Amino acid sequence: MSSGPAWRSSAARAQIMDEVARYNSERWEKMVRAGAVFTRPQLDLTPEEALDWADPKRQLGEVAGKDVLVLAGGGGQQSAAFGLLGARVTVMDLSDAQLEGDRTAAAHYGLTLRTEQGDMRDLARFADGSFDIVAQPYSINFVPEVKLVFQGVARVLRPGGYYDFNCANPFVAGLTDNAWDGTGYPLTRPYVDGDVIVYHDEPWVFRGDLPAEAFGGPKEYKHTLGTLVNGLLEAGLVLQHLREETLGEPDITAPPGSSEHFSAVAPRWLRFCARKAAVTL
Ligand SMILES: C[S@@+](CC[C@H](N)C(=O)[O-])C[C@H]1O[C@@H](n2cnc3c(N)ncnc32)[C@H](O)[C@@H]1O
């Protein structure tokens, strides 16, 4: 665990942003070598499973023939799913090792895929209105500020296009079922933008007995609910749907400290579906 917001000047922010990218780049190369769950290409997807990966709540409309950007979502899961559904897919990720997973999956299914190595905070390489859908699996918490990402996404989307992303639930970010102390899951982190959360990945992330400590924990940044919602609106992205996501089925009668019990008390993730306004607001 470490301190809260650390940037005070633009110079300090630039330095931190460089460190942010470097940390994640190095960490994700190691995660790929370790075969972490987020780095395993999906090579046996049925059409139904592809739809579940791409659009679990069926909110994005017909995907076939659409231009889709899978943002900071390398690894060969979402890119393969959208490709199998007939979309024209571009996947962007900081880690070339992760993108290799996307290329592996595309080759396996005989799909055409564009891969772009880069930082989610800089979408300058894409022209205005290039995509119908931007799909961002869990990754926005790896950067300290959402504004640059949301503005970039809004610019590269076509009017009416969808932005579907998942992020940490800021009210419980950094907490896991291991935090059970006999009476509850104590909240200790401040509820502020940019609070830095460092923790160790849980065992389910890795295969076998690999010690999570060996890989350096995720370093994540809190984004408050107000910042997320207002950031979308200020970028011209209109919220369509918001839901909580959990690891396992929430069950308040399950043993305290279990994933099911924790999920019933503290849903880990939020999933936003927003749409670019047809007319600029
Ligand atoms: C949890 S993985 C999510 C994608 C994976 N397909 C999945 O379903 O789990 C997070 C991804 O974010 C990428 N990432 C981290 N920071 C990034 C940044 N600043 N810009 C672009 N990608 C970044 C990592 O390389 C990693 O591939």
Task: Give the arrangement of secondary structure elements.
Elements: H1 10-34, H2 47-54, E1 67-71, H3 78-84, E2 88-93, H4 96-109, E3 113-117, E4 131-136, H5 147-156, E5 157-168, E6 196-198, E7 219-221, H6 225-234, E8 237-245, H7 259-265, E9 269-276
Parallel strand pairs: 1-2, 1-4, 2-3, 4-5
Antiparallel strand pairs: 5-9, 6-7, 8-9
The protein binds S-adenosylmethionine.
What does this structure look like?
With 281 residues, the chain is α/β, with parallel strands linked by helices. It is built from 7 helices and 9 strands, in the order H-H-E-H-E-H-E-E-H-E-E-E-H-E-H-E. It has a single domain (10-176, 190-253, 267-276), classed as Rossmann fold (3-Layer(aba) Sandwich), CATH 3.40.50. The strands form 2 sheets. It has a 7-stranded mixed β-sheet, with helices on both faces. A two-stranded antiparallel sheet has the order 6-7. The longest helix is centred in the first third of the chain and has 25 residues, at 10-34. Bound molecules: S-adenosylmethionine (SAM).
